[in-house]
Prior knowledge:
The chain is about 30% helix and about 25% strand. It is α/β, with parallel strands linked by helices.
Amino acid sequence: MVTDRGFDELVAEADAAPIEGWGFSWLAGRATEERPPWGYARLVGERLATVGAALDIDTGGGEVLAEAPTPPPLLVATEAWPPNVPVARRNLRPLGASVVRVADRPPLPFRDAAFDLVVSRHPVHTWWDEVARVLRPGGAYLSQQIGPGTVRELSEAILGPLPPPQHRHPQVAVADARAAGLTVVDLREATLRTVFHDIGAVVWFLRKVVWTVPGFTVERYRAQLRRLDERIRAEGPFVAHARRFLIEARRP
């Protein structure tokens, strides 16, 4: 078992492991997270098969988009984090997709009304005016987003008690979409059980999902990590809860 190994060994291994892209295969057998009931990858694949031009914003390493069985004639993905760009290009090459490195702020480098469909899984920020601008009339934006207070239990295990979450509320997303001139046609929410079986899984997750503990480094939080390791060994896997919402908005 992983937990038969010592704290220092597990932490060192996780701290050295690569975190490029947006896949989580490194956690196989060490952490699990329930999947949202709507099946985002399946929904995206179905939509891509029906349109002529599509854009994936914040594609990460292109892992979700790469699952699409029938890509449209024009498929473009954007990514702002430089290490992810070559990963996404490699993953999306079989689909004939173009991957564009962009800044983490607007504008998007595309003409008005360029796409029938815009998708985004776990965007860092949704620039609703830009989404509306690049959508064709009748086009749709489909996105799975991080909800408020996601894996808050893990954040508090490292940082201590936190104030109520102020960001990523689904109703705020609805209001922002409408303010950009879009019509919200679907909104769904889910709370998902997330289980960490060893401290190495925690370290790797915190390095990759940077908003969980902003500014995380092993050295900065070694004492908190050691306490959490002792808790896992004494009580069993650490359980947190991820929050997600699906939003679909259309340009009239």
